[in-house]
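User: structure tokens for this one?
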Amino acid sequence: MPLPLDRSAVPDYRRLGLEGRAAVVLGGGNGIGRQVCHAFAQAGARVVCVDREAERAETCAAEIDGVALFGDITKRADVERIFAEADERVGPVGVAVDIVGMPYLEPLSAFDDAKWASQLDLVLTHAFLVMQIGGRAVAAAGGGALVFVASMSGQVYLEKQSAYGAAKAALIHLVACMGREYGPAKVRVNAVAPGFVRTPRLNSMLNEEQWQAIGEMVPRGKVGLPEEIAGPILFLASDLASYLTGQTLTVDGGITDFVRLPKLW
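Assistant:
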């Protein structure tokens, strides 16, 4: 028996559903965060650029006609203030993107208690605060999306990144759990896990010869650029990803699941 003719409605796939929505980008003053601010602004969102450094936040916000806020998002009071001010300045928050995080590149054996706690703050504690405080704000707005930046370090072993990787692995698990918890509130929670990306911080640490060597290891044949991470973040926040939650999308040029073998035959 032939299938019935499909005459179901076809949505406008060109629309991301971000026009006029308030989007808070935490860690938005530089690198991936700055590109995310530009991406959301181009999609029609009202963007709040948040950074720990006021000058970075203000510079990026000026580029996109957005709003600049600053603070330490590892502190509950600052996160509460940021979301409250965002609501006052641009309206109910429909999207929050958390890009904050930095590794301490040392063997785990070299960590003392203070450095361990600081690494967790820089990677995990603020994500918990954004999920809790930002998630409530997005739920109160009628639903929307939270997007976090994880890392390939949370999926595979990288030298001198055991502490960072453990925190990112916990973030990936939190995203999976919160996708379920927030489902009834119509809040989607997802993450991207970048590979090697030419951020300003890494550019200050690596020279061109080192970048070239890394690029040669990546199946895609190149290291990533900040805008190549901003695109998937935009997708996860948009209506195109309306049925996607609790997931971590690896954006790494193919290196995470790639095993380089010596010549065997």
